Amino acid sequence: MRFLLGKKLEMSQMFDEKGNITPVTLIEAGPCVVIQKKTKSKEGYDALQVGFIKIEKKSKIKKTMKGKEYKYIKEQRTDNNEQYKVGEEINVSTFKEGDKVTVVGISKGKGFQGGVKKHGFSGRNSSHGMKHEARTIGSTGQRFPQHVIKGRKMPGRMGYERVTVKNLKIAKIDKENNLIVVKGAIPGHRGTLLEIRG
């Protein structure tokens, strides 16, 4: 199981030999450091704990962070973590061009939204007596059981959710600058923390 933490930089585009445009996303991936190995005998499961972006400012490091002075720490379950050692660096060289990866990130927060934007409701018709009603959701229940049933799609907060995008193809890898160029779009704004799995 290949696992790496990264940061979304921006979207761009690439051209092939025929001049066709491919939309791509640039990810600053790693280098990450293995800071803890969890085993079945001790913790009950096999996993690797990985740190990304070391905290350099001493005033930001707390006593409880000893040995784990990283801005982001994530854990990934593995079938076999014997190949990794604590303190070992994991970088973009674990992946290669053409690989299919799964990317997990937090989507952009869109605040409180109505039913038309959030759930794709059509709104009300624009006939007589429908002033100021165009984008309302309409009836929310029925005579029985005389309350709104759980799970009803209604206005509310939209976005800022954990989103997984599968089968993204790696278009290019820049080992010197720790860059992975992925074909297609990835959730989140610029600077969003991403989990890249191969």
In words, what does this structure look like?
This protein is an all-beta fold and 198 residues long. 3% of the residues lie in helices and 43% in strands. The strands form 3 sheets. Strands 1-2-11-10-7-12 form a 6-stranded antiparallel beta barrel. A hairpin with a 4-residue loop joins β10 and β11.
Radius of gyration: 23 Å
Count of extended strands = 12
Secondary structure class reads mainly beta
Strand content: 35-45%
Q: State the end-to-end CA separation.
A: 6 Å
Q: What is the topology, as strand order, of the major beta sheet?
A: 1-2-11-10-7-12
- The total count of helices amounts to 1
Q: Biggest sheet: strands, sense, closure?
A: 6 strands, antiparallel, barrel
**General shape:** extended
H/E series, N to C? EEEEEEEEHEEEE
Poorly predicted regions are none
Q: pLDDT average, as an integer?
A: 88
Helix content bin: under 10%
* Oligomeric state of the chains in view: single chain
